[in-house]
Amino acid sequence: MRHLIVPSVDTQHWFNIVKSNNWVELGIGILTMDDGMKAIPLNSNAPDNTATIWQKHSFRVIPRDAKSLNHWTDLIDRTLYHALEDFWPKSHEVIGDVLIVKLEDQVIQHKEQIGAAMLKHMPNIRLICADNGVEGKFRVRSLEPIVSRDASVSTLTKIREHGQEILVDPTKSYFSARLSTERNRTLVAAKSLANELGRTITVCDPYAGVGPALAGLLTEPDLIDAAFVGDLNPLAVDLLKQNVSRFVRKQNSELELEIRCQDARKWQHDENNNNRMDLLLVNLPHETINHLTDLLPLMRRNNLSLIRGWAIIDKGDLAAVSRKLEQLFADHGAEDHRLSCEEIKGFSATKSYIRIESWQTFGKSV
Ligand SMILES: C[S@@+](CC[C@H](N)C(=O)[O-])C[C@H]1O[C@@H](n2cnc3c(N)ncnc32)[C@H](O)[C@@H]1O
């Protein structure tokens, strides 16, 4: 990095000139040289060494590593940083090469500077977006692109999970990178079910979104023989189809596959789907418990089966929810029922996010 070399006593004077012209390399400090001279880091906008403005001062190229900065906020103008110290975003979410950040009102007017600093500090990020919450009946993200590395403001990106590439667009379909541990556990539980049954299994993921849970399941050799998957959001189903077709291409064995854009509660209206599923995923956290009644007819009878679901419930309601589910499953003929309802994270001051895992044998048709 090119530096302007100035006598120590003149540092402030030259720093002011460089900074007021936007020639200073932000976030990289002024260096003191062995001979006591100061080296001011210049960015690529600064005029070349022969320009008259420099008044014959010398220059040195000194290697400096922007990555050695501890945090992207080190790249924010120091005066501005200290003036708004409490309001700079403390966390962000990365989905593929898109970074999503919530901005407090106090710093929103500096969003371009925030975006530029983040982009500079995180070389794998292509696009920085402000998070404006969720919108619409499918609760997709409302994202405002702030700054892009390559001029594209497309929020379509790819993530990697289970060694698979998954196409994701958070403005078109719900996706949470944070649930990858749950998806891993689903795969482990599915293998355990197949193991206990001594055969391949049929899976139903009717709230599949872009299909992240299927990345592991459909690419695992000799695990799944048929998959019934879908989502009510047509934009999610577009991406789901692309993702699933890539997952199954890697499978050698024949797999029966059905992808539908429909309300999950309607799968039961096609008789062929009933009494078929060994494994059911129910991931519509605000509605999971209400929808279960319409999903149970899909489960295979007289066989061990597994349902994994995720729900948002009132804090303190865990025992009541558990009892309600015990009763619901019993009413649908579940025998040898092993149910676990476990809080996996807080959701808000009043709500919890829970995992429901239910192993049973449905003994009679309902
Ligand atoms: C919490 S997301 C889960 C998505 C996906 N399983 C994942 O883990 O990323 C819930 C999904 O259910 C879809 N959805 C909402 N209502 C639905 C319904 N009645 N039937 C089927 N899908 C529905 C939404 O579009 C969304 O993609």
How are the SSEs ordered, and which strands pair?
Blueprint: E1 2-6, H1 11-20, E2 31-32, E3 38-41, E4 58-61, H2 78-83, E5 93-95, E6 98-101, H3 105-108, H4 111-121, E7 127-135, E8 140-148, E9 157-161, E10 164-168, H5 180-197, E11 201-205, H6 212-219, E12 224-230, H7 234-249, E13 256-260, E14 279-283, H8 288-295, E15 304-314, H9 318-331, E16 334-346, E17 351-362
Parallel strand pairs: 6-7, 11-12, 11-14, 12-13, 14-15
Antiparallel strand pairs: 1-3, 1-4, 2-3, 5-6, 7-8, 9-10, 15-17, 16-17
Helix pairs in contact: 5-6, 6-7
Describe the 3D structure:
Helices cover 26% and strands 30% of the residues. The protein is of the alpha/beta class and 366 residues long. It folds into three domains: 2-64, Alpha-Beta Plaits (2-Layer Sandwich), CATH 3.30.70; 72-155, 2-Layer Sandwich (GMP Synthetase, Chain A, domain 3); 175-362, Rossmann fold (3-Layer(aba) Sandwich), CATH 3.40.50. The strands form four sheets. A seven-stranded mixed β-sheet has the order 13-12-11-14-15-17-16, with helices on both faces. A hairpin with a 5-residue loop joins β2 (31-32) and β3 (38-41). The radius of gyration is 28 Å and the shape is elongated. S-adenosylmethionine binds next to α6.
